[in-house]
Amino acid sequence: MNEEYDAIVLGTGLKECILSGMLSVSGKKVLHIDRNKYYGGESASITPLDDLFTKFGFDSTTMQVEEYGRSRDWNVDLIPKFLMANGSLVKLLIHTGVTRYLEFKSCEGSYVYKGGKIYKVPADEKEALASSLMGLFEKRRYRSFLVFVQNFILEDPKTWSSIDPNKTTGAELYQYFKLDKDTADFTGHALALYRDDDYLQEPCLDLINRVKLYSESLVRYGKSPYLYPLYGLGELPQGFARLSAIYGGTYMLDKTVDEIVYEDGHVVGVRSGNEVARCKQLYCDPSYVLDRVVKVGQVIRCICLLNHPIPNTNNALSCQVIIPQKQVGRKSDIYISVVSYTHQVAAKGWFIALVSTTVETSNPEAEILPGLNILGPIKQKFVIVSDLYKPKDDGKESQVFVSQSFDATSHFETTCNDVIDIFRRGTGEDFDFSKVKLDLTEE
């Protein structure tokens, strides 16, 4: 361990493993350390099911765990998230060849909550015209909006209509197409995946790009724009760890981190016992540098074991449901993700639903009730309230680059944005996909 590295990465959460892979591919000499014996950090997958009951303080011997089928058939993600089929993470997986280690299954449906019911999200003209989410005239207006978005090309002003994407706000774009507030609500939160309504006052280019991404992702697989890896998300960090190793990265699990060593305010190494590994840069999750992060809130997540699909989803074996904040008088959306035995994460006939949101009150469990009420009968639930941390600075002065905690969203877009931003801050450049020349079959 007493060597010098370009970068040391602490923690094997998904963000840290992706960064380790990206840095290694970019030619950096990387050492990756985790205090845990397993990959995934707070985003790990728990198997067998007995371990999940034990983790949450249940006595699995008295819980009749046998009724849930074979314990080893379960792989329960603590922070499950779907991948947008045409999104940043899938592009990264394909470009880096990590897909060699993974197999994906498309999510069967994307739904939105309105007026106490859930509806399939219409994402193309055909679905918009068939949707019961809108009235007849609103459907036609919405179809016009979707056609505009799909035909929009930033480099070709002829496709802009009377919209200036750099000046027209999101609210003005909706007004231009005469869309009502409910339509704007599900478009912004269930298609564009905004977490609040601040975007309404921002230039609409980002909104257009997000709806376009949703539509393009939908076209790839048809049922929904989302993918999920077989055997759960625990496979993702390991895939990127293998990538890093192929490019010369060194991994050490179950290794204590006793001190981060600084000289003149700059990081110079990491001490474990009597050994010090020297480095020029450090990348880590918030838990390793609590003095360098600030708590910005909390997220509540409730893992629910079900023996049936969610009602009103056409018996979907997997789906996402978003409850926009305004529908339940909140400031934050509520997210529901459902996967099942078809993803090899549960025993035959079983489903795993996760309900999550950003905490706003002193009674977090009451805040997710609208989501829990959608699920139907719940056999068992496990509740986690996690602190949300953000780094205090951009890390350029100390050369310590810290990731943000995982937010409440049920998709990976914000995760990827954070990783790409950290890489840019640390290296001063965008990740160059063309550097990934090695075919992983050469391993």
From TrEMBL:
<dbReference type="GO" id="GO:0016192">
    <property type="term" value="P:vesicle-mediated transport"/>
</dbReference>
<dbReference type="GO" id="GO:0005737">
    <property type="term" value="C:cytoplasm"/>
</dbReference>
<dbReference type="InterPro" id="IPR000806">
    <property type="entry name" value="RabGDI"/>
</dbReference>
<comment type="similarity">
    <text>Belongs to the Rab GDI family.</text>
</comment>
<dbReference type="InterPro" id="IPR036188">
    <property type="entry name" value="FAD/NAD-bd_sf"/>
</dbReference>
<keyword id="KW-0963">Cytoplasm</keyword>
<dbReference type="GO" id="GO:0005096">
    <property type="term" value="F:GTPase activator activity"/>
</dbReference>
<dbReference type="GO" id="GO:0015031">
    <property type="term" value="P:protein transport"/>
</dbReference>
<dbReference type="GO" id="GO:0007264">
    <property type="term" value="P:small GTPase-mediated signal transduction"/>
</dbReference>
<keyword id="KW-0343">GTPase activation</keyword>
<comment type="function">
    <text>Regulates the GDP/GTP exchange reaction of most RAB proteins by inhibiting the dissociation of GDP from them, and the subsequent binding of GTP.</text>
</comment>
<dbReference type="InterPro" id="IPR018203">
    <property type="entry name" value="GDP_dissociation_inhibitor"/>
</dbReference>
<dbReference type="GO" id="GO:0005093">
    <property type="term" value="F:Rab GDP-dissociation inhibitor activity"/>
</dbReference>
<dbReference type="Pfam" id="PF00996">
    <property type="entry name" value="GDI"/>
</dbReference>
<protein>
    <recommendedName>
        <fullName>Rab GDP dissociation inhibitor</fullName>
    </recommendedName>
</protein>
